[in-house]
Amino acid sequence: MRLNNKIAIITGAGRGIGEAISIRLAKEGTDIVVCDIDFDNAERTTEKIKTLGRQPLTIKIDVSKSKDVWEMVNLTMKKFGRIDILVNNAGIAIVKPIVEFEEEEWDKVIDVDLKGVFLCSKAVAKIMINQKSGKIINISSSSGKMGTEFFANYAAAKFGVIGFTQGLAKELAPYKITVNAVCPGIIGTKMWDYADEELSKRLGLPKGEAFKKQIQNIPLSRSGTPEDVAGIVAFLVSPEADYMTGQAINVTGGMVMH
Ligand code: NAD
User: Fold this and answer.
1) Domains plus CATH for the chain?
2) What Cα–Cα distance (Å) separates residue 169 from each residue in 14, 125, 163, 188?
């Protein structure tokens, strides 16, 4: 086990990519703080982690609320006394043409996808600076490298996550804390079910067709799985990646190459 007895906070761990990251890191020997706004889903992930023999802590949290974030860090410190890994994975998307996009919708996505990354990183950085060690992973997106129609607001948030990652990587390097981003492409989760439905509607296609159309642009000819992303996160938080910081790694089947 590469990550024996490390303590990891994973946001958005109740389903999809966050759930897969939680399970993968638990298999590598990590105790997991399972954080999600949906407590029932978080508890389901927690039960799976228990069966792997690791200690989970389940926390209901809205990453865009500063009070919730401080509570998450306080509860983690009370139970485990340290934080080795933070994975900022919680995210939402609203898929719409800009002329229909409401100001409140714009704020909501930026609050969860970008401000949430700032709030969680700030709270955890205080602990990691004292420890003089830590690994922060921010889940950005292929939309953080390349804008696509009806995803402009999501792209704004995810480009922002990469810029934040680079700045923070330089700032925290003196404390031996690494900060990297992961940029998944088309990953089969509930988020993509929603995106497919909205995109198909906008493009006048039957449900499922927008997803298929996107896959035609993927050199490896398939969508990704949450486990594909989890494997890269497991590498980035392992000692093998100690000399990597400020990077934004594509997990897109070759759809994005820069
Ligand atoms: P998902 O919708 O299946 O899961 C997201 C999880 O985040 C859910 O459990 C949800 O309850 C939780 N969440 C939402 N808002 C929250 C909040 N305010 N506070 C705490 N938890 C909250 O989505 P997913 O596909 O697993 O996406 C995970 C991450 O990967 C997101 O950041 C997403 O933007 C990113 N991503 C996904 C894809 C994809 O194709 N699925 C591609 C690129 C990037």
Assistant:
1) 7-185+225-251 (3.40.50.720), 186-223 (no CATH)
2) 27, 11, 10, 30
Q: How far is the CA of 19 from the centre of ligand 1 (A)?
A: 10
The pLDDT profile of the chain, 258 residues, written as one tens digit per residue, is 689 899 999 999 999 999 999 999 999 999 999 999 999 999 999 999 999 999 999 999 999 999 999 999 999 999 999 999 999 999 999 999 999 999 999 999 999 999 999 999 999 999 999 999 999 999 999 999 999 999 999 999 999 999 999 999 999 999 999 999 999 999 999 999 999 999 999 989 998 899 999 999 999 999 999 999 999 999 999 999 999 999 999 999 999 999
Residue 189 alpha carbon to ligand 1 centre in Å? 9
| Most informative mutation of 10, 46, 92, 107 for ligand 1 (most atoms within 8 A of CB) | 92
Q: For strand 177-184 and strand 85-88, is the pairing parallel, antiparallel, or unpaired?
A: unpaired
Test site for ligand 1: of 189, 194, 211, 232, most ligand atoms within 8 A of the Cβ: 189
Atom of ligand 1 nearest to the CA of 194: 2
Dig out the tokens for 217 from the structure: 């642009």
User: Is the full-model pTM beyond 0.85?
Assistant: yes
